[in-house]
Write a structure and sequence with these properties.
Strand content: under 5%
Largest sheet: none
Distance between the termini: 26 Å
CATH architecture of the largest domain: Orthogonal Bundle
Number of domains: 2
Order of helices and strands: HHHHHHHHHH
Shape: elongated
Helix content: 55-70%
Structural class: mainly alpha
Radius of gyration: 18 Å
C-alpha cells in the first residue's frame, strides 16, 4: 500500500511551526540555565515576544513546552477513511496508514530532543507529563476504533486497548528509527520495518 505523506505546509502553518519552535527553544534555554521551578510561563513568553495567552495556544503547560510535546493527531481524512473500513480493509495495513498520518504531523529537531531528554533526567516530574500526553492521544485512538466498530462490528478482532497499544508501539519504534537516522527523509518510511518487527515478535 502507499502510505500518506504530509502536504507542503502553507505560510500560516510555517509561521505557527516557527513560533512553536521558538517557544520550545526559549523554555529549554531558561530551564537549563535556572531550573524548572524558577522559570514561569510569563518569562518564556516574554523571551519569545508573545503574551502568556498566546503561549497557551501552543502548549497546555510550561512542562509541555520544555519537553516540546507536539499536538499530533490522526489526519482527518485518514481518520474518516479508517473509520469507514479503509484504506485497504486489512487491519494491520490500515493501522499502518493511521500511524503514518500521525508521523506526518511531527516536525522534530535533534537538538531540542536532546535538550528535552537532558532536562527530563533531572526533573522526574516531567515523566508524568509524557504519560498524560500519551493517554490523551490514546483516548483519540479509542474513539477512532469505536467509529470503525460502529460501521462493522466484526472488523476489529481484538479489544480497543490492545489496538491502541499496537499503534503506540509502531509510533515509538518508527520514531526511534527516524531519530537514529537524524530525522532524515520521511518518518513513515520506517513503518514497514516496525510492522515486521512486531509480527516477528508475535510469531515467537
Amino acid at each position: 500500500m502507499t502510505l500518506p505523506t504530509a502536504a507542503e505546509p502553507g505560510l500560516r502553518e510555517r509561521k505557527k511551526a516557527a513560533r512553536r519552535s521558538a517557544i520550545v527553544d526559549a523554555a529549554q534555554r531558561l530551564v537549563l540555565d535556572r531550573g524548572l521551578d524558577a522559570v514561569t510561563v510569563e518569562e518564556i513568553s516574554a523571551a519569545v515576544g508573545i503574551s502568556a495567552r498566546t503561549f497557551f495556544n501552543y502548549f497546555d503547560s510550561k512542562d509541555d513546552a520544555v519537553l516540546g510535546l507536539e499536538q499530533v493527531a490522526v489526519d482527518e481524512a485518514a481518520a474518516e477513511q479508517f473509520a469507514a473500513g479503509g484504506p485497504t480493509g486489512h487491519l494491520m495495513a490500515d493501522l499502518q496508514a493511521v500511524v503514518a498520518s500521525v508521523l506526518a504531523s511531527v516536525s522534530p529537531d535533534e537538538g531540542r530532543a536532546k535538550r528535552a531528554h537532558e532536562i527530563a533526567r533531572s526533573e522526574p516530574r516531567l515523566l508524568h507529563r509524557q504519560v498524560v500526553w500519551v493517554e490523551r492521544h490514546k483516548a483519540q485512538l479509542l474513539q477512532l476504533f469505536a467509529a470503525r466498530r460502529a460501521v462493522d462490528p466484526g472488523a476489529l478482532p481484538v479489544d480497543d486497548e490492545t489496538l491502541a497499544m499496537v499503534v503506540v508501539v509502531l509510533l515509538r519504534t518508527a520514531a526511534l528509527a527516524w531519530e537514529r537516522d537524524g530525522y532524515a527523509g520521511d518518518a513513515a518510511a520506517h513503518l514497514p520495518a516496525a510492522v515486521e518487527s512486531l509480527r516477528a515478535l508475535l510469531a515467537t
